[in-house]
Amino acid sequence: MRAFFRRMLSLWRRQQLDAELAxxxxxxxxxxxxxxxxxxxxxxxxRRAAARKFGGRLQTVEAHRRVRTFPVVExxxxxxxxxxxxxxxxxxxxxxxxxxxxxxxxxNTSLFTLTAGLLFRPWAGVASPDRVVTIFPVDGRxxxxxxxxxxxxxxxxxxxxxxxxxxxxxxxxxxxxxGGQGKIGAFLVSGNVFDLLGVEMVAGRGFRADExxxxxxxxxxxxxxxxxxxxxxxxxxxxxxxxxxxxVPFTVVGIAxxxxxxxxxxxxxxxxxxxxxxxxxxxxPAVASFLYRADDCCSDLVGRLxxxxxxxxxxRELELLNRSFQSEAGAERGDEHLDGRRIVxxxxxxxxxxxxxxxxxxxxxxxxxxxxxVWLLACANIGNLQIARASARGREIGTRLALGAxxxxxxxxxxxxxxxxxxxxxALGSGLAYVLPSLLVRSLADGPAPFSLTPDAIVLFYxxxxxxxxxxxxxxxxxxxxxxxxxxxxxxxxxxxxxxxxTLRNVLLGVQIAFSVILLVSAGLxxxxxxxxxxxxxxxxxxxxAVTFQTPAAYDGARLDGLVSHLTDALGxxxxxxxxxxxEPLAMTRxxxxxxxxxxxxxxxxxxxxxxxxxxxxxRIPLVAGRRFRSSERTSxxxxxxxxxxxxxxxxxxxxxxxxxxxxxxxxxxxVVGVVRDAYTTNLTRVxxxxxxxMDHIRFAPALLVSGGTEADAANAVRIVAQFDPAIRVRxxxxxxxxxxxxxxxxxxxxxxATLGLSALxxxxxxxxxxxxxxxxxxxxxxxxxxxxxxxxxxxxxxxLAGQTHALLWGLxxxxxxxxxxxxxxxxxxFGITPLDPVTYGGVVMALVVAGIAASYVPARRATSxxxxxxxxxx
Amino acid sequence: xxxxxDVLHGxxxxxxxxxxxxxxxxxxxxxxxxxxxxxxxxxAINQGTLYPALLKLSHRGWISTKWGESATGRRVKFYAxxxxxxxxxxxEETDWQRAxxxxxxxxxxxxxxx
Lengths: 875, 114
Prior knowledge:
The complex is a heterodimer. Chain A is 54% helix and 15% strand. Chain A contains 28 helices and 23 strands. Chain A has a six-stranded mixed beta barrel. A six-stranded mixed β-barrel of chain A has the order 15-16-21-18-20-19. In chain A, strands 14-22-13-23 form a four-stranded antiparallel β-sheet. In chain A, α6 crosses α15, α13 (356-392) runs parallel beside α16 (457-482) and α24 runs parallel beside α27 (838-864). Chain A is globular and about 130 Å long. Chain B has helices at residues 11-23, 28-38, 50-59, 83-113; strands at 26-27, 63-69, 75-81. The longest helix of chain B is centred in the last third of the chain and has 31 residues, at 83-113. Chains A and B meet through α1, α2 and α4 of A and α2, α3 and β3 of B.
């Protein structure tokens, strides 16, 4: 082993070692000559005798070198330096190849880095992270939900296989501090969370258990590191001071460490006790709903495994507890909502959440496949360039073969040339992987990634493997091809007129076309479906505008009534319709209640909204049956949506029926006066059963909806509110924008797909261009003769194209077949179009035809402008 | 990595090790002279072959090298045997003795059989 390293080492020190040996040998000869001289020989004879005894000096040097290194390694090294020189002589090839490979390898390693950083890393900043688990209920269809706060407390009090259970619930709040404002992400956490996870605060402390008593909230907050740095300048004196969250003063008790960002891979800005939700949104029925209702959902739980407990045991125990909680809660409410759940206990990495794995892995797999195809395309491209080069060097290769180099030796040399190129690209590409992922995350998430995105050794290894694979993929076939030269004809350097030497190039061309068709079709389908989704009809009019109010905490029902009637009076005189609703469409929060048709029948979990009479007009949600609310509607009537109507009265009309709606103490009877068309007012994935009640007894600032809201309307609303009370904070939201934000991910997907598809198209165009160009150059002489004999330009172009037509058609055919297979895989991600969308396929073929014409234009011009006289002299 | 050297093939290595063991650090020419003297000029080797052999031995860690000055003040490389080299020398010596003994025995048997 040691000898091996020394040998490797001596590769780099070759000249020095040679010099040392020469020095040693000359010393030897001097001593020997001196001895001979002492024996009485003349100095000339003495030197000769010494040299004779020493033997062949060159043999000694050679033998020395052989011992010093491995001859094979040394010759590979020589090949590499030779290749480097060769590449320097052809800078155009080197630069093009380097750029293409760098981009491709860089993109691949970036995706790798991003995937590893985002999906597979457990939470940082917690003590013994391998004992921390996430707990999710999974419904019958494998979708992960959340727990109610009530259930989390129930579980925490009884579970033995976990040393503790804590809640982490995302929340969005307004932050006001030294003038700073705006919605930011926060987490509502139970009081024990920092102790349970073992998070060491940068400054201050975590929460105490007594700071999170539901019904007795305390206004304390722990700041996220990012927020502390960005908005508060990293000043430790902030501990004990007060910041305003949703306009309520909160005392800062601690600062979380940089690594700890909460359960989602984005920066958590604030941590607040769960109980404090009542302070943040006083009177909001949604808060009461999640704090007290057993059937509310969507609080995420974390736990720490007790000593000796496994996550399997924990899952079993939690399942039993969950069932007993259900039967307790169910006996009280008879609610089927909680049924059929099982509990999954997993790690804290992003992929641990059930149901997330498939969706995300599909995305990652699609992306990797796309990138892999682009990579193959790039290799095919460079392979084609390699062939062109190798054919141009046919004479050099022929000479080397004639001089007795074995074919393997020449192939090896050509492969090493490719390897040098791709290793350079790998070095640059992994440089790209250092920069690109964090840039990407920064632009998508509006901030630095809260997790490490530095490529590790595995990523670098991946880049090197990719480089070696690249050089094998693009180098091997051309190298074998190039060395299959007939020595005699290579030396005579006749331009091949025969077509057989173009076969491999044509195969590569066909492969390129096929891959780009697959990529372009996939990209086209995704782009088209994103377009379709952008024009997705949510069932309500998005040209309205929503205005929300953040009232001072001291506002009671009377003041809110005052605000609403002030707005009604002021707006009533202006043009345009308006309405109030307890929540604007696509709001972050929701209010859950239960409805049933008869006392004791199975209640259904239902969304509840209170609205004023013009709500459906403003949002243009059509009435299916019955009537709208009148302006002085009594509270004993409700309007329901089609989904709820179908649930309760599948066969008959709901109008006129009595619906029992859960009230503070019992289910209260309400008369259904109307049924409206289903609309995606809460989220874009499904329509929830919804009951609309008339707005009365306002306890929480409602949202104002103004139809056809313009900037002027928004400013108007702000002005009117300011007249009433300048302390009220007003936000205006264009519903179209809100919708567009929710459609964002699909657009990102389409943008990525389009980028991949366009790079494929660019590569294919370059490849086609190269093949045509080369073919023209190769056949200059032949074309010259034909032109001299009177061939027309069209005939010449036809001649050039003819050689490639087969490749193009085969590539197109294979590509379309491959694309059809690929789009079957994509089916799940498509929206509103069939996987065989004719517009996409037609567009792709058109794009390729245009690209083909562009790629052949310059070569064709060159071919037709060939001057017979020059061409015949062309060598 | 220990290499069990073939007796005949590794003769030169063995001779060099033994020389350095007996004489202490020597430079290349001195090793050559010493071998010449001991073998009374019967071992006709090209002195040049010594240098690759010395390099091989030092790669194996059996000898160490150091630049120094000869008695005449010439800058030369000195070779000295290392403890590992001495261990190797001892095993090779025993191997050699055993092998030589076996061969000698065969010659004796061959003689008596005649």
